[in-house]
Amino acid sequence: MSSDYGKMTFREQMRGFPLFQMFIISLIRFTEPIAFTSFFPYVYFMLIGFGVPENETWRYSSYYAASFAFFQFLFSISWCKASDKFGRKPTLLVSLLGSALSMLVFGFAKSYFVGLIARSMMGGFTVIAIIRTIIGEIATEKRHQSIAYLTLPAFWNIGVVLAPLIGSSKYLVRVPADIANPNNFLSKIITVRPISVSTAEGFYDSFMDKYPYALSNIVIAAYIILNIFIGFLFLEETHPDFKGRRDYGLELGDLIRTGLGYEVPIRPWKSEGLSIIQSNVTDNNSSVLEIESIDERTPLHHSHTSPRAFYNDQDVEDDALSTRSDDSVQSTNFLSKRASNAIVRRYSEIPQLHLTRTNTRDPDAVSIFTFQEGVEVGAFTKPVIQTITANFILSFHNIIYWEFIPVFLAGEFLKDEVLFPFTIRGGFGFDSATIGNLLSYTGLIGTLSIMILFPLIDRHMRAVVSYRCGQAVIPFVYLALPFMIFTLPDYNPKFKPGLTLNLLYCLSSLSTVCSSICFPQIFMLIHRASIPKHRSYINGASLSITSLARCIAPLLWGSLMSITEKYSISEVAWFSLALLAFSGFIQSLFLKDYDEDLKAEDEP
């Protein structure tokens, strides 16, 4: 079955799309993949420089990945709660400042533990959950959501293209000379510049010799700071309670856009009398007509004021606290059923009351009209749990693949320890430039697949179906990867020198295409399965849970890789990863397309 808008033309689907705001949030989204993946090409050599034994690089690189994910797990929900309290925009900008600082600390690290602290800081300041929430609040129409959510993996893949180029650039990264010696295999694949002892040595060379990985991180930190200024000037606040708050940065950005000849919208704090709630109703008959036009998108309160009364000559607050039924509300003849439901849904978002309304006919129901303070009652319904679990499994095996394939490619090729078909030890023996090119190329393939392939798939397939298709292919990539080592010319001279790289390019590209299809679809399924008022909280919880997966996964697989490496059975770890990915496919068969927005509209 095709999607609901499969018969629309692309122009019709894109009509009214919030292009400018999506462009701004996409630039900010771009910072995470660059910060996260830029060190992949040189992490192996960085660890060697820190004194890590070559046969322990699997384990120590997993600690870097795990620390990032663990602190992301610890702080994700806190960041989302902060965005609910202070607004999306200021919270996002503060997190970006912390990310820039952590990049600088990592670049100037002179020991393994300083690098570990920096990676932990990066994870703690990552706020992808807020970005997901902002995208959902920007793209409010269903026909826009698939296009909006595909920006998450699209810009991830663009970052995967550029970040390895930054991390492997000979102008931004210099592998220290003291890790290459005649008895080390690295001397065969690295061109080492002798360290000059001249007093006339330039500042650039002396700086690169002292801090070989700093310059690449400085470049990335500068880009993050640039995005802070762009967000301050042009990003709009999307939180319903803070949209009307005056934004001086946005006002300055509007002046810049106006000076360049662009039209800017009238900001809420500059307009008066646009909300029917802010006016006192004096005529009952006219009140009926105005209130009948209310729906769940009509703002009924502001964060700095208490809710205004909807009824004339009635104490609404007392009525609400006495949990009157819908029928009693309708008996006043002021509200229709539709308007009453809209009011209930909107008032259920007021933090002072936290009213939760649940349909008793829903098997996932939690309660009927329960008041809680600070508790997200009814957020984790069965559909939400199912989609978050699917995201957990997908993130678990995806992060393992991308974290460990650079280490596998950079590991020393041990011809005497490799025997077809089930004796594998070591790696492919590639240098950082080759690894960086491979990662960049596959990132480019992922970007193109999102721009060209994903819209076609999304228009003709339901989100859950395309998600299942992607999940079905990934296990075969993991199964085939370790056997690529037998195609190296050093193992079998019958194979051409470029065959191994071409096969690796194909496998990585296939994995990237499938991931590029799966991730936007599961994000969209989580968004649609979530009750609207809980979406920020659920996005934070979802990211926190997937961060836990990204924390546990490298630790478990780092240890597993070390054990299998010790016994020359490295393929067992990759087979286990394929089995995990296959379990994700099985779990996807139980998913359905959910839509809480339509469900809310259909509520009696």
UniProtKB/TrEMBL annotation:
Transmembrane segments: 20-43, 63-80, 92-110, 116-135, 147-166, 213-235, 392-411, 438-457, 469-489, 501-526, 538-560, 572-591
Keyword Transport among UniProt keywords: yes
Entry keywords, A to Z: Membrane, Transmembrane, Transmembrane helix, Transport
UniProt-annotated location(s): Membrane
The keyword Ubl conjugation appears for this protein: no
Entry's Gene Ontology cellular component terms: membrane
Topological category with respect to the lipid bilayer: Multi-pass membrane protein
GO MF terms, alphabetically ordered: transmembrane transporter activity
Superkingdom classification of source: Eukaryota
Main location: membrane
Cited InterPro entries: MFS (IPR011701), MFS_trans_sf (IPR036259)
Gene3D superfamilies in the record: MFS general substrate transporter like domains
UniProt name for this protein: MFS general substrate transporter
The species this protein was found in: Hyphopichia burtonii NRRL Y-1933
Lineage: Eukaryota, Fungi, Dikarya, Ascomycota, Saccharomycotina
